[in-house]
Design brief:
The chain is mainly α. It has helices spanning 2-29, 44-49. Residues 34-70 are annotated as: Disordered.
Length: 70
């Protein structure tokens, strides 16, 4: 019984992994319903997100102590 249970678990995990890996390809190959319709205007949420997509960066330039020999 434990061996059958292990086989079922391994099969289930393999099927789940295969479905997860195949999802992007299935989504990309569905040409009937594109994710973003280029003929329609962008939603207000998408236009608001656009300029602020990179504002979480706290980069203030190169580190002055990096690469300096001690």
């Amino acid at each position: 019984m434990p061996q059958l249970r292990n086989v079922l678990l391994a099969t289930g995990l393999g099927a789940f992994a295969a479905a997860g890996l195949a999802f992007p390809f299935v989504l990309a190959s569905s040409r009937d319903n594109p994710v973003i319709d280029p003929n329609k205007p962008l939603s207000p949420q998408a236009t608001f997100r656009g300029p602020y997509i990179n504002t979480g960066s706290r980069d203030i330039g190169p580190d002055p102590s990096h690469g300096v020999p001690k």
